[in-house]
Design a protein that fits this description.
heterodimer; A: mainly alpha; ABC transporter involved in vitamin B12 uptake, BtuC; about 75% helix; B: Rossmann fold; six-stranded mixed sheet; 9 helices; about 25% strand
Chain lengths: ~300, ~250
């Protein structure tokens, strides 16, 4: 019974592309792809923000780096998707390692500020690279997988597959020894240290993992839009991901997915209705923070 | 050979000398009490021993090895475990989860990402054994926030115990306790002392003089006296600095 709802949802997602093609709703297939990409990125942020208690305000850096890796490598003539994927995930993880090693020595507001500062440095660095488009951004052609051709539909299924795999991995992680210690550190760091856990190392591993997954989400985003711009790396993007996590539920397993889906849909609807759509988003976020601190996932859990 | 030895240990915070050239040794098997007025530097000393703070000078030796620069988490693995003066637990989790976490820390690597930890029955069994030792077996599945103060203090000791320490550092275990709860804690400490060496920081003089084989007195960051309870009771300097007001009632 616990799996009934997810299975129905999964079946609908699997069946959607042919239905969309038959009924002329291709637009919504694209929207769903975008939502799944954001779900992946937001879930990776939820891993450190929700389960690890690390309020990183620079998650767009890894997301953007993943996306830019696609665009730059394609531009430089590397067209193998496998090479690009490995490079993007590796580089994002490496960046998270560098930022994490320094940032994780700070706490609280300082941690928020230093992760933000690092992300902004990457942002301005990318803007200054005129050969890669600077402020205008860069085309990101789709690479070759060999096994199949990457078009809108295969990308949809690819994104769905990656999202499911990543969610499964994170589910295992959260319930493993490592996950338990990570959550213990979030709850009481000094006690975790007194029990003999090397707190810093646990946090760093989670931080790098989250960065690498966000990088992968960035890759998929580049495949989706076929274009990258510095806005992918900007602090607004980090804030956007953070809003998804808060909306969906901080430290709730489905928080990232729910937040990404609902926020994207709300934005889509409000954008059609009014140019002041951001005001509406703000009001919704405010209501969630005030009345449902565990987000939509927490609300659903209470109802079920 | 002493189990723990502090040699000329100092720590200052800016201009304030919290611990000043402090030397102390704890012999295996004893309950060694550390007493002193508020602000004497007792908790700072505990933090220096556990590695939470780095000393400004001096050395810490444990089992004959210099651990002055050993990171805090490795000291726990060597056999140094502490309790906190202000209850420091995983409040939103059950007694069981708290103790399992403590057991997990000493039984194999926790950098395991795949197997569900809930399936590791040996953690639960070891946790339950500790719960029985501290009298919380009946409260195993209760969330810590719902325990009484005395029970929380017992769990505080339990978490240290679960790491199978060679030396237990108890930082004011009776803090905030009523008479009855204190009595239980004294019994618990006396029981633990059969198998553990204990460094006990405590304000409750009645408990200290009942439990300790040796007592060291810390005043303004310096050890001004160290000896048996009888020697400390008779020491005029200790009286002047500290015991005067409380010692008579003890």
């Amino acid at each position: 019974m616990r799996w009934f709802f997810p299975m129905v949802l999964l079946s609908l997602l699997l069946a959607f592309p042919p239905i969309a093609a038959a009924t002329g709703l291709e637009f919504y297939q694209g929207l769903l792809t975008k939502i799944m990409v954001y779900a992946l990125a937001a879930s990776s942020l939820n891993l450190i923000l929700g389960y690890g208690g690390m309020v990183s305000f620079g998650h767009a850096a890894y997301f953007g780096l993943g996306a830019y890796t696609v665009a730059i490598l394609m531009r430089e003539g590397v067209t193998s998707a496998w090479v690009i994927w490995v490079a993007a995930v590796g580089l994002s993880g490496l960046l998270a390692l560098l930022i994490g090693v320094i940032s994780l020595r700070t706490r609280g507001v300082y941690f928020i500020m230093i992760t933000l500062a690092f992300a902004q440095m990457i942002y301005y660095l990318v803007v200054s690279f005129k050969q890669y488009g600077g402020e205008d951004g860069l085309r990101a052609r789709r690479p070759e997988f060999g096994l199949f051709e990457l078009n809108d539909t295969t990308l949809y299924y690819l994104t769905l597959g990656v999202l499911l795999a990543a969610l499964y991995l994170m589910h295992r992680l959260v319930h493993s020894r490592f996950g338990r210690v990570l959550q213990a550190i979030r709850e009481n760091e000094s006690r975790a240290l007194a029990l003999g856990y090397p707190v810093f190392r646990f946090q760093l591993v989670a931080f790098v993992l989250a960065g690498a997954i966000a990088g992968l989400a960035g890759v998929l985003m580049a495949h989706y839009t076929q274009y990258v711009s510095p806005s992918l790396l900007a602090w607004q993007q980090s804030g956007h991901l953070m809003m998804m996590v808060i909306l969906g539920g901080v430290g709730q397993f489905w928080g990232g997915v729910l937040g990404a889906a609902v926020l994207s849909l709300v934005e889509e609807v409000l954008q059609d209705l009014t140019i002041h759509w951001q005001l509406g988003v703000g009001v919704i976020l405010l209501l969630i923070v005030l009345f449902a601190p565990q987000g939509l996932a927490g609300l659903l859990r209470r109802k079920v | 050979m002493s189990l723990l030895e502090l040699v000329g240990l100092s720590r200052h915070f800016g201009g304030l000398l919290a611990v000043n050239n402090c030397s102390l040794s704890v012999a295996p098997g004893e309950i060694h009490a550390l007493i002193g007025p508020n602000g004497a530097g007792k908790t700072t000393l505990i933090n220096l021993i556990t590695g939470v703070l780095k000393p400004s000078g001096g050395r810490v030796r444990f089992q004959g090895e210099d651990i002055t620069h050993l990171p805090a988490h490795l000291r726990v693995h060597r056999g140094l475990a502490r309790t906190f003066q202000i209850t420091n637990l995983f409040k939103n989790q059950t007694v069981r989860a708290n103790l399992e976490l403590a057991v997990q820390a000493r039984s194999g690597s926790s950098f395991r990402f795949w197997q569900p930890v809930a399936r590791e029955k040996h953690l639960t069994e070891a946790a339950l054994a500790v719960a029985e030792q501290i009298g919380l077996a009946q409260r195993f599945e209760v969330v810590v926030g719902q325990l009484s103060h005395g029970e929380q203090r017992a769990l505080e000791v339990g978490l240290a115990l679960a790491s199978r320490p060679k030396l237990l550092l108890l930082d004011e275990p009776m803090a905030g306790m009523g008479l009855e709860e204190s009595e239980k804690m004294v019994e618990l400490i006396a029981r633990l002392a059969r198998k553990h060496t204990i460094l006990l920081v405590e304000h409750d003089m009645g408990a200290v003089f009942r439990l300790a084989q040796r007592i060291s007195v810390l005043v303004y960051g310096q050890v001004i006296a160290s000896g048996s309870p009888a020697e400390i009771r008779a020491n005029p300097e200790v009286h002047k600095a500290y015991l005067g007001e409380e010692g008579d009632t003890a």
